[in-house]
From TrEMBL:
The keyword Transmembrane applies. The chain crosses the membrane at residues 84-110. It comes from the Bacteria. Residues 48-75 form a coiled coil. Keywords: Coiled coil, Membrane, Transmembrane, Transmembrane helix. This is DUF1640 domain-containing protein.
Amino acid sequence: MPDTQTAAPVASLPASLPPAERIRVLEDRCLTLETRLSSVDSNQSDLRTEMRHEIASLRSEIEALSKSMENSNRQINGKLDRLFGARAVVTAAITLLTSILGSGVVHMVVSIGK
């Protein structure tokens, strides 16, 4: 029979845990339940059914967290791409401006020196 810590509901996880850590904890719980399910006697069909339901629930929660993490990563990567693109444009503009000003100063020095 599973102990209360293993069979604790998913909602009991602290909200402060990062999604990757939550996924790891959920996978651990799922693996523990699957291991214990194999040792549950076939006469305890109610317990087996409940454990299978809990395993399915954990797998669903893991899948939802994984999708959420993927969406967040896509959004972050999009923002970083825009940031680096903007930074490249600014760097190119500064380089061009410096080049123009530098060649203008060189031209002026050469003109004055003659």
